[in-house]
UniProtKB/TrEMBL annotation:
The keyword Transit peptide does not apply. It comes from Chauna torquata. One of its GO terms (cellular component) is membrane. Keywords: CBS domain, Membrane, Repeat, Transmembrane, Transmembrane helix. This is CLCB protein. It is found in: Membrane. PANTHER family: CHLORIDE CHANNEL PROTEIN (PTHR11689:SF89), CHLORIDE CHANNEL PROTEIN CLC FAMILY MEMBER (PTHR11689). SUPFAM superfamilies: Clc chloride channel. The keyword Hydrolase does not apply. The lineage of its organism: Eukaryota, Metazoa, Chordata, Craniata, Vertebrata. It is a multi-pass membrane protein.
Length: 457
């Protein structure tokens, strides 16, 4: 069995390297975008600033959507339902070939960097599964490569085991949560399981997490910013110390759980309706080329909504407010903070919302505005013609209404600095709200709890 464990380690390492690469590219593109916007803004050229802010997002989403529409249709939108279907007996063409791998990767990083309401989690699961399939079989019909090694794994059962491990490694790499990756595959992905496969999948997830953490320890956007192999706690741990909880804290927590279930059900219901209407509309178009062009225009419309909606809420000084809030957080302007929540990269925005000790950083207006638009636009985005995931939108949406509940408690009881009232913190309830909405949409429980604990502590 040594060769099976070796392959699991190689798959985990490869997925970890891929996760590192995707995050570095996304960070680089986001930084490049806002550096260009800042330069034009400092020159006082607001027209070019606006064109740059909107144009970069449109260019990214144009390439992102085109890559899955014209290059690899199997990579849209996230690939996770297809992976689940395959592992449960459904045969899907071109799901694991190298063309799908390249198209999904390009589409994912560009979609996330463009500012679209999506995350890289779903595509990373798909990409991890492709690596699990390719590295275990050591053959490619597309490239015409058939290596004469480890041929005993070229059967349906072993192939599905390695695909399962690769999918778990994908989620482990994104959240740096090896146990969460294992439980996710057990709870959501695979229906056929045994103890041996569980340990091997955990080892694969562990290697993916370690590789991503190790490579990310000194680089941000491909810029060297530290010592290789030195893991800075403040980059990973959002809640530094344990909180002494009061029994009263369970009341808003239960409320958030109920709210997460209701809003999660509403999100799923609306998304199903939107996708049915989307399918009916596109299927009514007879020509394939015109149908694909229409899907491309839809994604362009989605990414265009972000700055346009934010501009309506903050007036003609939108770009000044947004760039100021993003480049020098915290932001004191109500309109600017709302705009920054809508335009900022989702992962960074979640970090803002989870931040402890920022009781009055965001007001009701900015949080409610961002919640309404983010809920609607992320519901619309899910299912569109880009390789994208829903985890970041789910966490972001839940964090927004969780922080609103926390802000209500602060308004009632005031800012508490003593040990008995330290739990009244909007950042804490943002984390609870994020978990509640994530669970309400995905129906995950155990793996979600582990993932959230891994993220926050």
């Amino acid at each position: 069995e040594w060769d099976r464990w070796l392959l699991m380690g190689l798959i985990g390492t490869a997925v970890g390297m891929l996760g590192f690469l995707s995050h570095q590219i996304i960070d680089s593109l986001v930084k490049l975008k806002w550096d260009l916007v800042e330069n034009y803004l400092q020159d006082g050229n607001f027209h070019l600033t606006w064109m740059c802010a909107l144009g970069t997002g449109l260019a990214m989403i144009l390439v992102s959507s085109s890559s899955v529409l014209f290059f690899c249709p199997a990579g849209s939108p996230s690939g996770l339902p297809e992976i689940i279907g395959y592992l449960n007996g459904t045969s899907i063409q071109h799901l694991f070939n190298i063309k799908t791998f390249l198209g999904t990767f390009v589409s994912c990083v560009l979609a996330v960097a463009s500012g679209l309401f999506c995350g890289p989690e779903g595509p990373m699961i798909h990409l991890g599964a492709i690596l699990g399939c390719g590295l275990s079989q050591l053959q490619s019909d597309t490239l015409g490569v058939h290596l004469p090694f480890l041929t005993r794994f070229r059967n349906s059962a072993d192939k599905r085991s390695f695909i399962t491990a690769g999918a778990g490694a994908g989620i482990a790499s994104v959240f740096r949560a090896p146990i969460g990756g294992l439980l996710f595959t057990l709870e959501e992905v695979s229906s056929f399981w045994n103890i041996r496969l569980a340990w091997q999948t955990f080892f694969c997830c562990l290697m993916a997490t370690f590789t991503t953490d190790l490579l990310s320890s000194s680089l941000y956007g491909f810029v060297y910013r530290g010592h290789f192999g030195f893991f800075e706690a403040e980059k990973r741990i959002l809640f530094w110390n344990l909180l002494d909880m009061h029994v009263l804290a369970f009341i808003p927590t239960i409320l958030l759980g109920m709210l997460g279930g209701l809003l999660g059900a509403l999100f799923v219901y609306l998304n199903i309706k939107i996708n049915k209407l989307r399918m009916q509309f596109f299927n009514s178009i007879p020509k394939s080329s015109l149908r694909k062009t229409s899907k491309l225009l839809e994604t362009i419309g989605e990414v265009s909504c972000v700055p346009l909606v934010a501009n309506l809420g903050s007036g003609r000084n939108f770009l000044v407010l947004v760039v100021g809030c993003i480049l020098s957080f915290p932001c004191s302007s109500v309109q600017g903070s709302a705009a920054a929540l809508l335009v900022e990269n989702g992962k960074q925005g979640i970090t803002y919302l989870f931040k402890r000790g920022t009781h009055e950083e965001f007001g009701y207006t900015s949080l409610c505005t961002a919640l309404a638009f983010y809920f609607i636009l992320s519901c619309w985005t899910a299912g569109s013609a880009v390789a994208s995931g829903l985890v970041i939108p789910m966490l972001y949406t839940g964090a927004l209404y969780g922080r609103i509940i926390g802000l209500i408690l602060v308004s009632i009881f005031g800012v508490q600095n003593n040990e008995y009232g330290a739990w009244i913190d909007p950042g804490l309830f943002a984390a609870i709200g994020a978990a509640s909405f994530f669970s309400g949409v995905s129906r995950l429980t155990i793996s979600l709890t582990v993932i959230m604990v891994s993220m926050l502590s």
